[in-house]
Design goal:
This protein has helices at 35-54, 63-73, 78-83, 92-103, 109-135, 137-148, 151-157, 163-185, 193-208, 213-224, 231-257, 267-275, 280-296, 301-321, 335-346, 350-373, 378-390, 418-422, 435-444, 463-475, and strands spanning 395-398, 412-415, 426-429, 450-453. By secondary structure, the chain is mainly alpha-helical. The chain is globular, with a radius of gyration of 25 Å.
Length: 482
């Protein structure tokens, strides 16, 4: 939740209202609500979302989550949490929390997914709270739906990754920078705890993912245009950099090196569609609402300063750096404000408009559900690997394509060269990855060996090659149960 925000009275019409209001009075259908309502409803929303995320938390890890668990969390030294990096999978804060959970006995998918899911649920509750507090319950509900049912957010909230932690830390920090700056504009000192919490929250957000630094830069633009003393902010921003740097310092060099450049001319459209829920009709609705909110706040110089900073960062990442690893998820830090801005405009229609938003986001969810609910067959593949090893065979995976399976077995070797491949009795691979190596493996493996080249390893147990697998295992003198 970055500070692309204005300081209008919360009672002003939703379409033109920003988020940096200067009062703590809630607005719910024009009535001041009680503290119980203000806290109970967001808590209920957050808990419900947490239950939703955890309803399928026992499924196998996805590729990135499995990579992080295997290389940075499970039975790894503390130093690997902040210093180990494999294909940019490590989010240091998530790895540190994951190690704490693992060392405390929480060594299942459910336990390791709990912290990212809690962060995502807390963020949903916070977004609902801000929308409700400033513009009423319909806007708060719309904002929670737009964020909570976004397929990308759902995906990262259900993975063992640090994106949700990043988003929560930056959201808390952004709300605090608005609150503190507004008090200082009125000649008031902030509460003593606020600057401390700001530095910690922003630092942890950046420590969860380095791209969170774009929000800290947006804060600089916000503060520079706020007509307030900037000296106190040097220590506050420095504190955030110190906390985030302590977590990311060992990885920063690898992050900056990248894996090369490749300009993607269609990236802005890809990002817009992703933020809009993945469906063109839904994206058009949400971007219309967000654009109207932007237009309504065009006279606020702080708003314009933040917009200029974020657009400049986007232009540099897309046009100048043009990294081969530039993905929409790297801009998740600004998704909450997109949700609130769109909801502030669309929610002016009350509960009828909120119902329309609910239908639109339900369509996005249903459209993405097959992918969101898909399971890789890592456990089955690991069972096959263990059976091969039990027969004194050598089970291998081609490069990083075996990372899905790695957390579930100790008997998998990673190979890439022809010499390494020749010793493999079983070779797991992705279709579409390492094409040359896969082609060599298919031609150079002994005919008695087995190359399983399915993107989810499902081929290991599919009816089409089930008999082939059985014959292969029988050749290794294994007894295979049905």
């Amino acid at each position: 939740m970055n500070p692309t925000l204005t300081t209008e009275d919360p009672a002003s019409p939703p379409a033109g209202a920003g988020l940096a209001g200067n009062t703590d009075t809630d607005v719910t259908d024009g009535q001041t609500s009680s503290w119980t309502t203000r806290l109970a409803a967001p808590l209920a929303v957050g808990l419900a979302y947490f239950g939703f995320l955890m309803s399928d938390a026992g499924r196998p890890f996805d590729h990135d989550g499995a990579t992080s668990v295997f290389f940075n969390i499970a039975d790894q030294p503390w130093s690997n949490a902040v210093g180990g990096q494999v294909i940019y999978s490590n989010h240091p804060l998530n790895s540190l929390v994951g190690q704490v959970v693992w060392r405390s006995g929480g060594q299942s998918e459910v336990w390791l997914r709990m912290a990212p899911a809690l962060a995502a649920a807390a963020l949903i509750g916070l977004v609902f709270r801000e929308g409700q507090r400033r513009w009423g319950a319909p806007v708060g509900t719309s904002a929670a739906l737009i964020l909570g049912l976004n397929p990308l957010f759902l995906s990262i909230a259900r993975s063992v990754r640090g994106y949700s932690m990043m988003m929560l830390g930056l959201a808390v920090g952004s709300l605090l920078v608005i609150k503190i700056a507004d008090r200082e504009r009125r000649g008031l000192e902030p509460d003593p705890w606020q600057p401390v919490v700001y530095s910690i929250a922003m630092g942890l957000g950046i420590g969860a993912h380095a791209y969170g630094g774009m929000v800290l830069l947006a804060h600089v633009g916000f503060l520079a245009s706020s007509s307030i003393p900037l000296r106190p902010w040097l220590a506050r921003i420095g504190g955030a950099l110190l906390v985030g740097g302590a977590l990311y310092a060992a990885l920063l060099r690898a992050m900056l090196a990248g894996r090369g450049r490749r300009f993607n001319p269609g990236f802005p459209a890809e990002l817009a569609l992703t933020f809009g829920g993945g469906l063109i009709v839904v994206a058009a609705l949400l971007w219309f609402g967000f654009a109207y909110w932007l237009y309504s706040n065009r006279s606020d110089r702080r708003f314009l300063a933040v917009a200029a900073v974020l657009l400049s960062i986007f232009a540099i990442l897309w046009l100048v750096m043009a990294s081969v690893d530039l993905f929409p998820r790297f801009f998740l830090a600004v998704l909450p404000i997109f949700a609130l801005g769109a909801a502030a405009s669309l929610g002016r229609g009350g509960w009828i408009a909120t119902s329309a938003v609910a239908v639109a986001m339900a369509l996005s969810f249903v459209s993405a559900y097959p992918e969101l609910s898909s399971r890789n067959d890592s456990r089955e593949a690991a069972e096959l690997v263990d059976r091969v090893a039990a027969a004194d065979g050598t089970a291998c995976a081609l490069g990083w394509t075996g990372f899905n399976v790695a957390p579930y077995t100790e008997n998998l070797q990673f190979v890439i060269t022809d010499e390494e491949i020749r010793v493999c009795d079983l070779l797991l691979s992705y279709q579409g990855a390492f094409e040359r190596e896969r082609s060599n493996a298919a031609t150079r493996l002994p005919s008695t060996n087995l190359l399983i080249e399915d993107s989810r390893y499902v081929a290991a147990w599919s009816e089409e090659i089930d008999e082939t697998v059985r014959r292969y295992l029988a050749d290794l003198s294994l007894s295979v149960d049905s």
